[in-house]
Amino acid sequence: MKESYIRLIQYLLGIAIAILILIHLAIFTSFIGPGYELGLSWETVSERMSSPFYDIIYTLLLFALLTHGFIGIRNILFEYITGYRARIAVSWVIWTIYIIILIYGMLPIIAS
Amino acid sequence: METVKNVKFRIKRWIPEEGRFRVDTFEVPVFKGMTVLEGLIYIKENLDPSLAFRRSCRMATCGICGIIINGKPMLACATQILHLNSDVLTLEPLKNLPLVKDLVVDHTPFFEKQREIKPYIIREGGEEEYWNPSREYLQTPEEVEEYLQFSYCLTCALCYSACPITGTNPNYLGPQALMNAYRFIADSRDEGLLIRLDIVDSPDGCWGCHLAGSCSDACPKGVDPALAIQLLRRKIIERDLGYIKAVKGAPLAPPLPYVEEAKEVKPPKFTVRGAQKKIKEIMEKFVEQP
Question: How far apart, in Å, are the Cα atoms of B68 and each of B107, B190, B215, B245?
Answer without folding.
Answer: 15, 35, 13, 42
